[in-house]
Design a protein that fits this description.
By secondary structure, the protein is an alpha/beta fold. The protein is 50% helix and 16% strand. It is built from seven helices and five strands; from the N terminus they run βαβαβαβαβααα.
Length: 153
């Protein structure tokens, strides 16, 4: 099986390097590239990727990658793995809460093939933990609402 992988990264050199690295794998020869959130959303609709590698920091000073994850998850089910040079706990949690299934530091790019293959499993450990976290977070947010307000939500 050849996986369709979308690499979303604003740095053109890094984006090409990731794509070239992945295309050396026998099951990852079908890679696509996007430079920003808008291109990523458009390509997701067009090619329906199996996996999206999403940089958190897509433009100067903005964490658009996390927003892009949320938007992609509104219209399709795909495995999204965050790739970034940031290792801040809050960014990792926010990425996973938005719908990403894993997080890989750019310095660990060699792990990407194995992380991608693991993400293609039906349920990953991170997915299980984040599903429980999201359920609890939703319950927490809904707790102060009236029954009528909860029905609208």
């Amino acid at each position: 099986m050849n996986l369709k992988i979308l690499v979303v990264e604003d740095d053109p050199i890094w984006r090409t390097c990731i794509s070239d690295y992945l295309e050396r794998e026998p099951d990852m020869k079908d890679t696509y590239e996007a430079a920003n959130k808008e291109e990523a959303l458009q390509l997701c609709r067009e090619i329906n990727p199996d996996v999206v590698l999403m940089d958190i920091h897509l433009s100067e000073g903005l964490m658009e990658g996390i927003d892009a994850v949320s938007e992609i998850k509104l219209f399709m089910e795909t495995k999204i793995i965050m790739i970034t040079s940031f290792n801040e706990k809050d960014l990792i949690i926010n990425s996973l809460a938005a719908g990403a299934v894993n997080y890989v530091a750019k310095t660990d790019y060699r792990r990407l093939p194995s992380v991608i293959r693991a993400a293609m499993c039906e349920i990953t450990p991170v997915h299980t933990v984040m599903s429980d976290y999201m359920r609890l977070k939703k319950d927490e947010l809904l707790a102060p609402l009236t029954q009528a307000e909860k029905e609208v939500f």
